[in-house]
Design goal:
Elements (H helix, E strand, L loop, with lengths): L7 H12 L9 H5 L8 E4 L16 H10 L3 E6 L9 H12 L3 E4 L2 H10 L4 E4 L15 H8 L7 E4 L7 H14 L4 E4 L13 H16 L3 E2 L10 H7 L2 E3 L10 H7 L4 E4 L4 H7 L4 E2 L4 H13 L3 H12 L2 H17 L18
Parallel strand pairs: 1-2, 2-3, 3-4, 5-6, 5-8, 6-7, 8-9, 9-10
Helix pairs in contact: 1-14, 6-9, 10-13
């Protein structure tokens, strides 16, 4: 069950269906509540909050529906994208608790959540399968010069640091603003397309204030480059192409798709030493930082920019360990072991893509 417009499931489901014709995927919330769902072997949950306000036609809640499916022999797999929902809303938090408590097998994107959940949910099986790259969507990025020209970026800045994705809250906005104040002295710009959504002009006081704040932000932070609009698949490679490094600008986070994306695009990646991200980046030689110490963030960012070979090493790592077909095969083995009730060895290299993970 996929989150709207998130390519995570699509990127491994297509290769799996191609290599294993006996596999059939259905990514539709409506199917979950229908009788058709009883014919599936596995329900694979990604973002449980998508179900928190739904009920079946006979009034079953999300938890009750999961219990009903399990009684009919359907197994429940959960990929641990988050420990709790980003919103923190009670209904969404409850949906995570329901999903995780009824999960038969967890797939973890890193060692931190795997170790944590092995203690929290000992009744379930836990496997480490790294976040795949979206190689079926993006092949590579453009060169720096072509990207800068296409995006019409100012040549004054010596380097661009890419902070991709929607900035979700004030903590993340303050984090980026603090960093921009320091980096401007080294003529380093932060490319944060979705730092703040661009307001629509209208002759209303609230809209006028929003527009004024938007342009004042651009004046106060001239090295903070934002478009305020979502970046489509055609434009995305240009943003990676112009950037000297990718920065994971979320102080408190478990996973980030921008890590494998940065690796795949051949860019150094700097991220917070938290969650699954910190241990992963450290083990593959990318700089990490203490998100509560802005000087340490600056240090890691500059280290990523200065390492001219790191991007190439990251691309090689992604090609070796993170291709969608390879990750799809690992998930297929997890599915197969669950259906056959055969134990899958935790240290099986085909299940743990990371070369040093056990």
């Amino acid at each position: 069950m996929a989150e709207d417009e998130n390519p995570f499931v699509y990127a491994y489901a297509k290769p799996m269906e191609k290599c294993h014709p006996n596999v059939f995927f259905e990514c539709d919330k409506n199917v979950f509540w229908s009788d058709e769902c009883l014919n599936f072997d596995i329900i694979h949950l990604m973002w449980p909050q998508l179900f928190c306000l739904w009920k079946s036609s006979d009034g079953l809640s999300f938890r009750q529906r999961l219990m009903q499916l399990k009684q009919h022999g359907v197994r429940v797999v959960s990929t641990c994208h988050n420990l709790v929902p980003h919103s923190g809303l009670p209904d969404e938090v409850e949906s995570y608790q329901d999903a995780y408590e009824l999960t038969d097998v967890f797939i973890h994107l890193g060692t931190y959540s795997k170790q944590l959940f092995e203690q929290r949910y000992p009744q379930a099986k836990h496997y480490l399968v790294l976040h795949h790259v979206y190689d079926i969507i993006y092949k590579s990025c453009y060169c720096h010069e072509e990207s800068a020209k296409h995006l019409k970026l100012c040549s004054f800045w010596k380097s661009y640091v890419l902070c991709f994705g929607t900035v979700r809250n004030q903590l993340e906005r303050d984090f980026i603003k603090q960093l921009s104040r320091v980096l401007i002295h080294d003529r380093i710009a932060i490319l944060a397309p979705m730092y703040k959504k661009k307001p629509v002009w209208a002759w209303k006081s609230s809209n006028i204030k929003s527009v004024l704040k938007w342009y004042m932000l651009k004046i106060i932070y001239p090295n903070l480059v934002m478009t305020g609009e979502y970046i489509n698949d055609e434009e995305l490679p240009y943003y990676f192409g112009v950037s000297s490094c990718v920065l994971i600008a979320r102080p408190h986070i478990l996973n980030s798709g921008n890590v494998p994306m940065g690796l795949w695009m051949g860019r150094p990646v700097a991220g917070p030493n938290v969650g699954n991200i910190g241990p992963w980046l450290r083990e593959i030689g990318n700089p990490t930082f203490n998100p509560d110490d802005i000087s340490d963030v600056v240090r890691a960012t500059k280290a990523a920019i200065d390492d001219k070979e790191l991007g190439m090493r990251n691309r090689e790592y992604a090609e070796k360990y993170l291709l969608s077909e390879s990750i799809a095969e690992q998930i297929y083995k997890v599915y197969s072991s669950l259906i056959s009730q055969n134990e899958l060895k935790i240290d099986d290299k085909n299940v743990n893509a990371h070369p040093t993970s056990k």
